[in-house]
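Quick one: structure tokens for this chain, please?
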Amino acid sequence: MDPRRLPGAHRRPRQRSRALVAVPLLLILVVTVVDILAPPEVHLGPFLVAAPAITASFGGPRMTGFVGVVAVAAQSVVALARTSLTDLNHTLQITALILISAIVTLFAHHRERHEKEMTQLRSVAEATQGVLLRALPQQIGPLRIASVYLAAEAEAQIGGDLYAVTRTAHGTRLVIGDVRGKGLEAIGDAALVLGAFRAAAHRQAELPVLVADLEGAVSSDLGVPGTSRDEHAEQGETFVTAAVLDVPDIEPSLHLVSCGHPPPLLLRDGRVTPLKVSQPAPPLGLAEFAPADIAVESYGFEPGDVVLLYTDGVIEARDDSGSFYPLSERMAAWSGHGPQALLRHLCEDLLAHCGGSLGDDAAMVAVQRLPGAPAA
């Protein structure tokens, strides 16, 4: 499975717009013919304003303006066929049609410009995020890994979900996190955490020291005067929830520090167990407000076991009735093999649950311990 972002369709298809323009043109034709054939006391001309209004909902300013011109021409044909262009009733109808067509064309222009700005912003953000979220190796040490990033459909609402993996002399370390907020600033915060993790995780320091390094990187950035963080101080602190794992090569266990992040799920023999910590650390960036010792908790991680790391965009996805996605239940019901197949199943099931459109970006990383001696 491609570990990169799976983008939604954010650009309006031109072919679809050209096909839809047949609807307002057909409306103009029908209204024109019926109006000409109708009795003198019946006037259907006001219905023509619907044509440019409908076009503005899906077309650009040129298409909307073109339909408006066709509608005005049709109204002029009706006036000539029934009375004359100088007839007061038809003159007022034509004037109103010209005015409304101009207004909806202006609306279409502003909407199209806004969509271009959003498309450019999303393109920049996706390119930046694609550089930051490097593809995770399918196998590292004694572990098989799969990862995926599902993009939300909201325009330019790029999330700050992050994940990374690195090797040490005696094991593998992983991090998954979620930055509070959206957009380029969230991606900048994610870059900060990923950079600190990649710089420090390969060292032989204990897990609490690594988490302290990540906390120091985030906290020091928040304290720089004149940065965008100062502007957000009034709205609330910027912080990052994260789960940091250390998986030894030989010991059948894993060690976990949770910084306010949803608990990983351990799948063993068809049973799913949340790896909840008794002493969670505060999210990165909030240590000064909630000082706490960084506690490491250990869990069994046998060959064949699969651990799923995820962000809250997964468990907060809702269906039409407002129900959250039951990740543990759906994971336990899976009967396949391997982390790749697990993520493929969960992605399809998650998108089906929420109707194909996520409200927030979602990331998942599945890790399976392989039997036998650790790979180099």
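The mean pLDDT is 83.
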